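Table S2 (text version). Query chain:
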Amino acid sequence: MTETLSKAREILLRYSLCGRCLGRLLAYDKPGTRAPEAGEEIMAKLLREALALLNHSRESAVALIKALSESGYRPAQKIAEEQGLRVEARICPVCLGRLTDGVIDEVVAESVKRVSDYEFEDFLVGAYIPKYIASVEERLFSEFGLAESETLRKEITREVGSRLEALLGKPANFTSPEMLILVDIFTGTVEAKPASLYIYGHYFKNQPNIPQTPWYCSTCWGAGCERCAGLGRIYPDSVAEYVGEPAMRMAGAIGYKFHAAGREDVDVTVEGTGRPFILELIMPRRRRIPLETLKEDIERNSRGRVKVDMLDYATHSDLKMLKVSIEGSVKRYSAIVQFERNVSIEDLASLETALRGAVIEQYTPTRVLKRKGEKIRKKRVLNIKSTLIDTHTVRFEIEADGGLYVKELIHGDAGRTRPSVAEILGNTPTNISLRFLGILKTLHHPKQPTSNHARPK
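Corresponding structure-token output:
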């Protein structure tokens, strides 16, 4: 304690810290002691020390009494008055006099009010600290060697958090909270930030000409112009809107983001096992929504053009895995292709031999060069099966690396994709009807979440 008192004296003679901030800085050697009690104990001992010095070292005693008085320690102020010393209390340079139980109770009450409209099972408190306050605190840590001291932010979040646990009946969660409560003791303001709600599923697109996400007009970007007939978009709907909007309404969210494992061309249908996606609902008021009802609403609102299946709750970690899985995936397609000239069974046998297991070199397709930079991609065709429908028409079943442009694999894109079906057959495709049948496997395929945290409690 002698060393603590020596450091406390040194600090107070240079900075008029309030008792609570002084206690926080020096209570590291007394685990479990709250800053107010630690500060009170330290100041009481320093005052007794000053009184003991009055008779034989008055100058030192007066300096300490003044320092304690300026820090707002009432017993020291009374002694100063008795000694005829004129002293004015100063505002604490760290907390600006705002770190009091009264202020903390106010932000706790405001926090309860702010989160009352939200469903959540656990929470985490964060505290806003002005940059200049943080710099003052850092200077104190450095100047007096306070490497183990607790920060102002830590004390605020601990004090507010413990009171909220008692009032809300919910635990703090320091890793993946469903609610983040940001408090500012300097302004008395509180912000409630519910974590995003994630829903995993597979979508099916039963007819072409529905883009995965809204396709805005590149001329007016949504404002409406002659090119888009005033609609602001090239297509009136999208998979993301059919899925996201009813879910957003159910959850009382302010918005959503649609994350899918890759995307298909607008004229491609999605069948088979569907395309995996995760819907991120932003700032939801409700975290438990009827997923079966959501599934029905999506199908009804889209008039059967878009369906979803395998809906389940997910986590942010699942979203990361979904994004990682895109490049490591193997995807299945079915294509019905009409050719310019006759195709024989022998032609198709040679084609299968040439493409099965082949590495395809693709320059960025001509049709997407406006929005994607020029680069060369190397992707594998794992398997290809062909069925002759008539002399000019073939059905292909293709399994290939994710990221392979399948239409270009078929028509060759004027030699920018090699080898290609057109090149091997020496025959030009005149029409390609493509269907996406799902993901065969991935290197990091996101499983449907089963953890207690992911599901409603």
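Notes on Table S2: DSSP finds 14 helices and 13 strands in the chain. The longest helix spans residues 35-53.
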